[in-house]
Amino acid sequence: MAEFTRQRGKRQEDGGLGSVLDLLLANARLVLGVSGAAVLAIATLAVKRLIDRATSPRDEGDPKAEQKTLEESWQDLALIKATPKPRKKQRREDLSEPLLSPARPPAPGEACKPKVCSAPPETPRVESSPLCCLTLQEKLLSHYSSQLAVPEVQASLAPQLARSICAQLQNFLRSKCPELPFSSLFLSGPLLDGLGALAADHVNLMLPVVLDAALWSLIPGEDTVVRNPQYWMIKRTDLEYFPRGRSPWDRFIVGRYLSSNALNETLRKMLVASINWPAIGSLLGCVIHPVMASQELKLEVKHDQVELSITLFPVVEMEDKVLLAAPPEGLVENLWLESFYRAEVSKVKELDAGDSGARQHCLRILNGICKSHPALHKLSGSPLTHVVLHLSATSSDWAEESLADRFQQVLEELVSYLEEGVLPSYFNHKINLFCELLEEEIDEMGFMVYRAISEPELLLKEK
């Protein structure tokens, strides 16, 4: 019954619509003429068909009916678009003139001048440019040259400012703490070593701590409280024979271990309260502020042409180890982080020099992408370098012509490491470089890199 009522109402609506259309078409000839009425009839018929199909019940389970309806809709739309437009009437400049002037014979003595038909203005031809279909190799090289190039002014000014600040800090430490045997400070980081500089905005300032090997020894990371092979402890030895005070660094001992946290806190107080940064900044033509909220020892430098962040790292070199005063977050304060940065840079450059490879190009592109990507920024730096070093052990063709192949291969290797949640260090396979990442972060990174294997352009879009 309900279906019947619905169909009935539909027929009444169709009948009413048909009456209106018939009345319109009956009077169209009087108003629009024959050609105008034909145009209106065709358009009206097409529109009516579309309305009928829109209001008629659909066969949800019949794909042939749906396909037929779709085809008829496209035909009706084509019919409407193909309807010829009525010609516009010639505009009369003067309403007193007739539409067509009768031809008159030439006056006596009047020469019949041939009519010159001026050619219609040429329509400018638009040359269709070929579609821009760049290969992945070309896109990578274009991204490298356009996105990763540091402006020349910044590339020269940033290291210059950092060296000047380094010299000022060195002079202050020698005058303020002459009893502490700090060695000469030096700069480090991608801006200077060329493995990942996306902008001239960050430099590391390394402060060497000189220890007497007879009074200090290293405790392996596996034997520390965190059981992490990347963190070491520096133990004060032979206190029975060489009591406290024998080493100038004994003032930073906590439980017979040289405390990286205690040393950092002492340096932080100096950076914040003891050094006259406004005077140094005025001398160098910039503004220098210590960063209070950061766990690291950081300075912010603002110049008219560059903004620079400088991180100060006390560093100990013993037994072929490079240890940074960068303890993990938490209550543990005696741990020193083993750094492989110097070895990473040296090994990559050594491999590239041996086979004229493009490992450094590949790393700059990858580091630039990950640093600017919100989901991948924790992959930049050491993790990517170690993936490239692992891959170099099995893939020997690192010529620039193979950059695209190696780029995709690095992504594939990275996905496999993220799936396992383990990226072993190239220099010490006991160290997992993913150990401090959360499982959710690893999943998000893995999903993004997995998509990029089939669509590398996702990573090359400008951020």
From TrEMBL:
Coiled coil: none
Cellular compartments annotated: Mitochondrion outer membrane
Pfam families assigned: Mab-21_C, MID51-like_C
Residues covered by the Mab-21-like HhH/H2TH-like domain: 359-445
Superkingdom per UniProt: Eukaryota
The entry's keywords: Membrane, Mitochondrion, Mitochondrion outer membrane, Transmembrane, Transmembrane helix
Region annotated Disordered, chain positions: 81-112
Membrane topology per record: Single-pass membrane protein
GO BP terms, alphabetized: mitochondrion organization; positive regulation of mitochondrial fission
Every Mitochondrial dynamics protein MID51-like C-terminal domain range: 156-344
InterPro entries assigned to the protein according to its UniProt record, in alphabetical order: Mab-21_HhH/H2TH-like, MAB21L/cGLR, MID49/MID51, MID51-like_C
A single Gene Ontology CC term: mitochondrial outer membrane
Identification of the protein by name: Mitochondrial dynamics protein MID49
Organism name: Spheniscus mendiculus
